Structures are given as C-alpha cells and as structure tokens.
Amino acid sequence: MRPQDATERSVVRDSLGVGIGVGLYGVTFGALGPAAGLSVWQTCALSLLAFTGASQFAFLGVIGAGGSPVAGALTSVLLGARNTFYGISLAQRLGATGWRRPLTAHLVIDESTAMAVTRDTDRQARLGFYWTGLTIFCVWNLTTAAGAVAGNAIGDPKAVGLDGAVAAAFLGLLWPRLDSTHTRVLAVVAMVLALLLVPFTAPGVPIILGGLTAVALGLLWRGDRDE
User: Fold this and answer.
1) Are residues 76 and 163 both part of a single domain?
2) Do residues 202 and 95 share a domain?
3) Of 69, 148, 155, 193, which residue is most buried, by most CB within 10 angstroms?
4) pTM for the complete prediction?
C-alpha cells in the first residue's frame, strides 16, 4: 500500500521507525538460540514461524533451563494468546480476506497492533499495520540469522555470560507492559507462585502455571470492574 498524502506518509515513516528499531532486537534472540541449545536453523525457523518476541524468549528460557520442548511450546502459546484478541479487534479495520487472512494473522503482534488501532481511518490503520508488521518481520528474521551464526561461533555461552541473558532479554520485553497497578500486581502474583513451584515441578511448569494464574486473576479482576 502506497501513501497518498502527508498524513499517510507520516504513518509510514513512524511504522518504519518502529519496525526497524524493534526488528534489530532479533539479533539478541538469534545469539541466545544456540546458547539455549538450538541449532542455527532451529533458531531461524522459530523466528520465521512463531514471530512473536516474548513467546520466543519464553521458549528459550524454558528449554535453556532444562525443560522439555512441550513445556516451552505451552509457555509460548500462553504468552502468544493475546495476539488472538488483537486479531479479533483488528479484523474489521484490516478487512483481510482469502489468502491474505492467514498471512495478515501472522503479522499480528504488539507493535503492528499499536500502530493500527490509533489511526483515524481504516486505510491509515492498514498502512500502520502492514508497514510495521512487514518491516519487523523482515528485519527480525535477518538479524536473527546474523545473531544465530554469531552465537553459534561463540561456543560455551557461560564463557561470555549468555547463559543468563535469556531471562534478562525477556524481562526487557515485559517491563514496559507493566504500566498499571493491575498489571504489576498480576506480575508479582505470577512470579511468587512460579518461584514457590520451582523446587517441586519440572522446568517450564512454574512459568505455565504462574501465567495461567495471572490470566485467570486478570479476567476475574476485569469482570469485577465491569459490574
């Protein structure tokens, strides 16, 4: 979609700025993939097929701690479930049909959604969504590949401190979203529950149960506020 006026060109410029800035962070994920035990091609495939940063880092965190791929996948699905609700809210504005619908759904992430929902017209929303989503997708996957090759060449992740970087990177993605008392309380509750479960459960299970608890409490809290 090509911009037709100054406002639309501004939307595209903003989208490119967000897309490039966020996409460059893919190099961190790429470098951490081999550190968590993935091969270069597995790391690249995860970015290509999953394409949702927080879920990808969560997967690395689980398998890097010795958890099973199933536990890692469940954790990723739990965190990525919010994209389903994003898609529902965007469906009418984007108007994607036919073969474009699944491809559009793959681009539904936090940043593309944010760049779409604030627009005055449906056309501006589509410009913001697609320019942001496609830019991040391209840059993220390119930098993931570069980071994976570099990370694989490093060798032992503990030698350079990469063994603890997955948790730090995930926290970096999560922190900006804790922007209210509600979200902070839910995060603390989930964290405490997960820590309490660590000695008694397999790696990955505390994250899954903590996340499910946060979701359940969030839904109950919202229900009470709506009444």
Assistant:
1) yes
2) no
3) 148
4) 0.72
